[in-house]
C-alpha cells in the first residue's frame, strides 16, 4: 500500500518518536531495488530515507516540482473551468501570490522535513550497528541528509537539524547563508567512503561517489546565490570552500569527473532519458528508482498532469488537463523546432508513424499495456501544440477499432466541453491577465509537455516505472557550460552547448538528423539553451535566479520583489514551534 503523507507542523518533537517512525514505516521501503536483501533495522532506516525521495517529494507535481517549476517561465497550472481551482493554491505558484498558508508550500516543506528526519534516523541507526557495510551506508545516509537539507535551504532559506547521536540535543536551524559551505565540506568528506557507481551493487538509485560529484557541482554553481539570495548581484568567482580556485573552477572540476567517466554518455534519443525503461539510459547519475508491483511508492504525475482528459493511452487511462508551458518558453524555441529535444514522433513496430497532424487513420493495436493486455496508444513526446488526435472510447469501454483490429485515430475534442477542439494554443490569453483562470470555453489553451512517458500500467497518476532523474549527464554538461561562461571561457562553454545539441538526433521522419550547432554564445543564449536541455526537471527556478530572470514580469505574473526568491515557512510550523522565524516579506 502506498503510504500517505503525515501532516506534521513542527519537526522533531521527539527524536525517539521520529526514530521509531523511520525504522518501522516500511511502506516506503526500497530494499529490494536499492539495498539488496538486507532487512536489519539500519538498512530499513536507510531504505526509508531513500523512499522519501519518491514518496511525493521529487516525483509528484505538487511538491518540489511545483515550487521549482510552476514558479518559472516554463510551467504553470491554471484553473480550467471547474477544475484545478482548489482555492487558488496552484495558480498562486505562478502568479507569485503564495503566502505562508499556501497548501503547496506546506506540503513541500513537510515532505522535505520528512526526508531530513528519516535521514537522521538512518544515521543514528547505522552508527549503532556492526554491519560490514556500515561505513558505506553511513556515507549514503549523510549524503541523503545533505541533499534534503540543500533542497530545503534553497527553497525556504532554512532547514532543521538535530544531532542524531544525542536524543536530548536541541533543534538547530541551519540557515542557507552559512549552511551551504558546511554542506559542501560534509559531502566532500563523504567521498572516500562512498562506492563508485556499478560497484558494491550500486546503480543510479544510490548515493554514490558520482552522485556526490554531481551534487557538489550543483552546490558550487549555486553557492553565491545561497549566501545572499536576495542580492542584486552574485559573486560566482568567490574563492572555493576547499582547495584552490573559484566556485566555478570547482563546478568544472567535479563535472569533469563525470563527463570523463566511461560509465556515462549522452543518449542520441533525448527522450529515452524520460522513458518508462529509462533505467537503461547511459546518462543517469542519480535518480529516483520507481518500480511498479512493489511496496515502494511511485508516481505518474510528470506525464499525467499535462495530458488532456480525452487523451487516452489505453482504454483505462487518461490525462487530467492541468499543467502547460508558458508562451514565453514556447516562443523561446523559435528557430529551433528541428532540435531533437523539442518533439519526437512515435513509430510502431510495423512501421506506422503517429504524426498527430490529421493524416493518421489508424495505428496497430499490437502494443499492449503491462498488467492488462489492453491496446496501448502511444502519444508523441515533447512539446505538443495545435490540434490533437488520438483514439476514442466506445460505450463498452474499449477503443474504437478497424475491422482488421487496428486503433482508429480521430480528431479530439476536450472531454469537459465536447464541442471544443483539443487545440493546444501557445497563447493563453486569460480574461484577467494577472490571474491564470480559464473559463470552460477556454480550457483547451496552453502547449502541453509530453516529455515524460505516460505509464498506463496501473491507474492514471498512481504508478510509473519511469525513474525520475535528479542528475544526469545532460545536466552536468549544462552546469559546466555555465561555469565556463562565468569564468570567461566562452569557447569552452560553446563547445559544451554544441555537444548537447549535436549529440541528440531526431526520429526517422526527420531522417535521424542531429541537432545543429550554434555559432556564438552569450548569457541570454545560454539561459535559453538551459531550458532546451533541462525543461521540467526541477532546475529552472535556480537558473532563473542565477540569470536574474526570476523577478521579471511574465504571463499571469507581475514583476516581483527579491524576497519571493525564497518561500515562506508554513504558518502552521511558525505557530507550532518557537524554533523557526518567518522569512522576510511574509
From TrEMBL:
The UniProt keywords, alphabetically, are: Cell outer membrane, Membrane, Signal
- Localization of this protein: Cell outer membrane
One Pfam family, short name please? SusD-like_3
Keyword Signal assigned to the entry: answer is yes
| Gene Ontology CC, one term | cell outer membrane
Q: Where is the SusD-like N-terminal domain?
A: 37-221
Domain RagB/SusD as annotated: residue spans: 282-586
Signal sequence residues:
1-21
What protein family does this chain belong to?
Belongs to the SusD family.
Name used for this protein in its record: RagB/SusD family nutrient uptake outer membrane protein
Where does this protein come from, organism-wise?
Chryseobacterium culicis
Amino acid at each position: 500500500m502506498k503510504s500517505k503523507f503525515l501532516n506534521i507542523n513542527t519537526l522533531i518533537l521527539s527524536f525517539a518518536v521520529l526514530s521509531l517512525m523511520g525504522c518501522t514505516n516500511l511502506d516506503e521501503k526500497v530494499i529490494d531495488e536499492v539495498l539488496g536483501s538486507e532487512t536489519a533495522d539500519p538498512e530499513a532506516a536507510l531504505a526509508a530515507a531513500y523512499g522519501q525521495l519518491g514518496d511525493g517529494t521529487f516525483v509528484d507535481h505538487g511538491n518540489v516540482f511545483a515550487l521549482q517549476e510552476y514558479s518559472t517561465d516554463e510551467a504553470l497550472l491554471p484553473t480550467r473551468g471547474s477544475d484545478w481551482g482548489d482555492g487558488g493554491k496552484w495558480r498562486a505558484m505562478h502568479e507569485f501570490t503564495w503566502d505562508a498558508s499556501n497548501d503547496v508550500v506546506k506540503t513541500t516543506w513537510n515532505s522535505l522535513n520528512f526526508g531530513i528526519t528519516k535521514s537522521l534516523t538512518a544515521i543514528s541507526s547505522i552508527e549503532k550497528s556492526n554491519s560490514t557495510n556500515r561505513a558505506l551506508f553511513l556515507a549514503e545516509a549523510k549524503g541523503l541528509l545533505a541533499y534534503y537539507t540543500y533542497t530545503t535551504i534553497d527553497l525556504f532559506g532554512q532547514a532543521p537539524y538535530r544531532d542524531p547521536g544525542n536524543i536530548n540535543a536541541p533543534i538547530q536551524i541551519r540557515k542557507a547563508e552559512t549552511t551551504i559551505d558546511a554542506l559542501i565540506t560534509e559531502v566532500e568528506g563523504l567521498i572516500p567512503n562512498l562506492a563508485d557507481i556499478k560497484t558494491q551493487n550500486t546503480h543510479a538509485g544510490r548515493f554514490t561517489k558520482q552522485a556526490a560529484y554531481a551534487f557538489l557541482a550543483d552546490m558550487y554553481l549555486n553557492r553565491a546565490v545561497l549566501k545572499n539570495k536576495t542580492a542584486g548581484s552574485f559573486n560566482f568567482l568567490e574563492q572555493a570552500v576547499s582547495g584552490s580556485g573559484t566556485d566555478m573552477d570547482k563546478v568544472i572540476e567535479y563535472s569533469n569527473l563525470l563527463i570523463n567517466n566511461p560509465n556515462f554518455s549522452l543518449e542520441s534519443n533525448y527522450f529515452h532519458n524520460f522513458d518508462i525503461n529509462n533505467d537503461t539510459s547511459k546518462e543517469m547519475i542519480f535518480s529516483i528508482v520507481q518500480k511498479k508491483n512493489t511496496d515502494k511508492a511511485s508516481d505518474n504525475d510528470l506525464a499525467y498532469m499535462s495530458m488532456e482528459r480525452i487523451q487516452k493511452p489505453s482504454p483505462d487511462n487518461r490525462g487530467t488537463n492541468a499543467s502547460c508551458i508558458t508562451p514565453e518558453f514556447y516562443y523561446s524555441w523559435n528557430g529551433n523546432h528541428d532540435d531533437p529535444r523539442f518533439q519526437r514522433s512515435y513509430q510502431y513496430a510495423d512501421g506506422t508513424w503517429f504524426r498527430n497532424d490529421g493524416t493518421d487513420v489508424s495505428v496497430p493495436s499490437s502494443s499492449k499495456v503491462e498488467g492488462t493486455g489492453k491496446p496501448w496508444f502511444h502519444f508523441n513526446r515533447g512539446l505538443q501544440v495545435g490540434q490533437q488526435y488520438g483514439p476514442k472510447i466506445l460505450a463498452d469501454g474499449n477503443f474504437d477499432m478497424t475491422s482488421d483490429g487496428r486503433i482508429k485515430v480521430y480528431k479530439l475534442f476536450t472531454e469537459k466541453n465536447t464541442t471544443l477542439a483539443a487545440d493546444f494554443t501557445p497563447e493563453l490569453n486569460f480574461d484577467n491577465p494577472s490571474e491564470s483562470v480559464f473559463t470552460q470555453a477556454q480550457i483547451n489553451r496552453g502547449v502541453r509537455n509530453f516529455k515524460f512517458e505516460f505509464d498506463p500500467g496501473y491507474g492514471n497518476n498512481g504508478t510509473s516505472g519511469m525513474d525520475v532523474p535528479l542528475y544526469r549527464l545532460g545536466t552536468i554538461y549544462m552546469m559546466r557550460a555555465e561555469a565556463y561562461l562565468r569564468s570567461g571561457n566562452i569557447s569552452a562553454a560553446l563547445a559544451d552547448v554544441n555537444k548537447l545539441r549535436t549529440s541528440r538526433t531526431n526520429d526517422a521522419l526527420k531522417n535521424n538528423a542531429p541537432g545543429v550547432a550554434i555559432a556564438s554564445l552569450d548569457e541570454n543564449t545560454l539561459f535559453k539553451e538551459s531550458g532546451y536541455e533541462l525543461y521540467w526537471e526541477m532546475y529552472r527556478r535556480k537558473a532563473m535566479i542565477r540569470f536574474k530572470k526570476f523577478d521579471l514580469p511574465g504571463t499571469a505574473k507581475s514583476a516581483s520583489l527579491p524576497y519571493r526568491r525564497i518561500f515562506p515557512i508554513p504558518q502552521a510550523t511558525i505557530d507550532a514551534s518557537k524554533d523557526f522565524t518567518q522569512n522576510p516579506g511574509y
